[in-house]
Structure formats: structure tokens, C-alpha cells
């Protein structure tokens, strides 16, 4: 019998499926629930247990992990009928790894505490590739003791694992992460169009740029997307649009100016309005091409 905690995993999307599978590989007993039948089949093939509802998934869990798109989905599965607060055992540790507003995380922790449920906000960075390779960066908000308890589990999912402060701090750092990523992708996209219009060998140019101060994880991960115009979603424009809204609102609340971020937020929004929301966020290249008359 395993001495590892029993895990309930709610949300088996692009990130949630490989992350839950990495927990199974690490020896955890994982029971999962999602709304997509094919993702439940995938979990079963990986050795997990399929649950037909949130209530069924969390009933016997020691740790509950949620990985869903945004604050409304988190609130629905936590507070709604048949939800986590209604069916989880007292003393369970709820880890929300979704990217949501800091205020939602703070409210969730306070409400769950009344029910005897401990909460960590633990959003991640690294995209689908980082989830598959278990090299995610995990930024955590919550109590130190709860963080220490969850750390072995986090170590099965990521490489950089840091408690950033109290409840909501993880989401605040994730918002900053999404700001940096969006502006970086935009800069890379502009460079690609500039290089191509100048007649430079793009492959050679991106290789040498990535070896210098202009190099970044974004360029390393997205270089082939730019070269091949392959915008298969690892992280969708729709989700980055949501995240840019989070960081814009949070920055306004604390009085921080985001001049570059505001421009990129509008470019992300324009892509979404033009029907590109389901594409990878590297599709910011398409916006630059349109502005440059190249598409």
C-alpha cells in the first residue's frame, strides 16, 4: 500500500492531462474528473481512476488539485452544487493550479478555511512542453506548512518551486509571468517579420539571437512555431487574453503602469476578435504580419 496521499484531479486539459500523468508515474493514486470523455479515457490508460463527478473524485481524497481555465470555472467546481466544499473531507489540502485572479484565490482560501479545508494557489509556467517534461515553474501562495506538505507533489510536476507569499501571491506572480511572456512573444514576432522582410536567413538569425542577450525561454520554445507558422495550441490566445485582463486589472488596483503590456494586451484581444483565439499565443506573429502587409 502506498503511503502517498490520494489525489483528486479536476480539469484534464492541455496542461492538466500530462501533469496528472506525471503524478501517476511518481506513484500517486490519482482520481480524475473532467467534462471531456476522451481525456478521461486518457487518464484511465495512464493508470488513473475515472470519476463521473467532482463529488465522486474528491470524496476520499487527501489532496485535491484543480486545473481549469479561469476564475468562473474554479468558483463553479468549488462552490457549486456537488462541488468541492460540499463533498471534500475536513483537513484536505486544496491546490488550485489554474491561472485566476489573486482576489479569487484570497476569497477561496478564506471560504474554505471555514469548512476546515486548507488552500494553496499554485499556478504554473512552462506551457504544454513543460507539463509533459515535468519541468514547470510553480509559484505558490499560502501557508508555509501547507507548502512544505505539498512540495513532494510539486517536485513530480516541476523544477522551479517557490512559495511567493500568502494566499494570492502565487497568482500575482503568475500574472507578472504572463505579462513578460506576452511582451517577449510580441518582440520576437516583430523581429521575425523585420528579419524576413530584410531578406535574412531566418533560421540562422534566430539561432544567433538566441545565443546572446536576446535569447530567452520564449524564443527557445517558440522558434519552430515562428519558422513553420505552426500555431497548434500549447497555450491558447483565448487564455492569454484572459491573463492579460488579470494583470491589467491587478496593476490598476496597485497603481502600477503597464505601458508595453497594455499595447500587447490590445494586440492579443485583436487576434481573438479576428477568430484566432484557439491558436497558440505565438500566433501574435499573425498580428504583426497583418500590420506589415505580409499576410
Question: What would you say this structure looks like, in words?
Answer:
Helices cover 56% and strands 13% of the residues. The chain is built from 14 helices and nine strands. Strand 1 (7-10), helix 1 and strand 2 form a beta-alpha-beta unit. The longest helix has 29 residues, at 169-197. It is globular and about 60 Å long. Residues 6-164 form the 6-phosphogluconate dehydrogenase NADP-binding domain. InterPro entries: 6-PGluconate_DH-like_C_sf (IPR008927), 6PGD_dom2 (IPR013328), 6PGDH_NADP-bd (IPR006115), HIBADH-like_NADP-bd (IPR029154), HIBADH-related (IPR015815), NAD(P)-bd_dom_sf (IPR036291), Tartro_sem_red (IPR006398).
Gyration radius from CA atoms, angstroms? 20 Å
- Counting DSSP E segments of at least 2 residues, the number of strands comes to 9
Helical residues, percent: 55-70%
Mean pLDDT level = 96
Which band does the percent of strand residues land in?
5-15%
Report how far apart the termini are: 59 Å
Q: Give the class from helix and strand content and strand pairing.
A: alpha/beta
What are the secondary-structure elements, in order, as H or E? Answer: EHEHEHEHHEHEEHEHEHHHHHH
Q: Show unreliable segments.
A: none
Taking the sheet with the most strands, its summary is: 6 strands, parallel
How many distinct helices?
14
Widest sheet, order of strands: 3-2-1-4-5-6
Q: Shape, please?
A: globular
Keywords: NAD, Oxidoreductase
Protein name: 2-hydroxy-3-oxopropionate reductase
GO molecular function, one term: 2-hydroxy-3-oxopropionate reductase activity
Family: Belongs to the HIBADH-related family.
Amino acid at each position: 500500500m502506498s503511503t502517498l496521499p490520494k489525489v483528486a484531479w479536476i480539469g484534464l486539459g492541455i496542461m492538466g492531462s500530462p501533469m496528472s500523468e506525471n503524478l501517476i508515474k511518481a506513484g500517486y493514486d490519482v482520481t480524475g474528473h473532467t467534462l471531456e470523455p476522451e481525456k478521461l479515457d486518457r487518464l484511465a490508460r495512464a493508470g488513473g481512476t475515472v470519476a463521473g463527478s467532482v463529488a465522486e473524485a474528491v470524496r476520499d481524497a487527501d489532496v485535491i488539485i484543480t486545473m481549469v481555465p479561469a476564475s468562473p470555472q474554479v468558483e463553479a467546481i468549488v462552490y457549486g452544487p456537488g462541488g468541492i466544499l460540499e463533498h471534500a473531507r475536513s483537513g484536505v489540502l486544496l491546490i488550485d493550479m489554474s491561472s485566476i485572479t489573486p482576489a479569487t484565490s484570497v476569497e477561496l482560501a478564506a471560504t474554505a478555511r471555514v469548512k476546515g479545508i486548507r488552500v494553496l494557489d499554485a499556478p504554473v509556467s512552462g506551457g504544454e512542453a513543460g507539463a509533459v517534461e515535468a519541468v514547470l515553474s510553480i509559484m505558490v501562495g499560502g501557508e508555509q506548512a501547507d507548502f512544505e506538505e505539498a512540495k513532494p507533489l510539486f517536485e513530480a510536476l516541476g523544477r522551479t518551486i517557490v512559495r511567493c507569499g500568502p494566499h494570492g501571491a502565487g497568482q500575482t506572480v503568475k500574472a507578472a509571468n504572463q505579462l513578460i511572456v506576452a511582451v517577449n512573444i510580441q518582440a520576437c514576432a516583430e523581429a521575425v517579420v523585420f528579419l524576413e522582410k530584410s531578406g535574412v536567413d531566418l533560421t540562422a538569425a534566430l539561432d544567433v539571437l538566441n545565443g546572446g542577450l536576446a535569447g530567452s525561454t520564449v524564443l527557445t520554445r517558440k522558434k519552430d512555431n515562428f519558422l513553420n507558422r505552426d500555431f497548434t495550441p500549447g497555450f491558447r490566445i483565448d487564455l492569454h487574453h484572459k491573463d492579460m485582463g488579470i494583470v491589467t486589472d491587478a496593476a490598476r488596483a496597485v497603481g502600477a503602469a503597464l505601458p508595453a503590456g497594455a499595447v500587447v494586451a490590445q494586440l492579443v484581444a485583436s487576434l481573438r476578435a479576428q477568430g484566432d483565439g484557439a491558436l497558440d499565443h505565438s500566433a501574435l506573429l499573425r498580428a504583426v504580419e497583418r500590420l506589415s502587409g505580409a499576410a
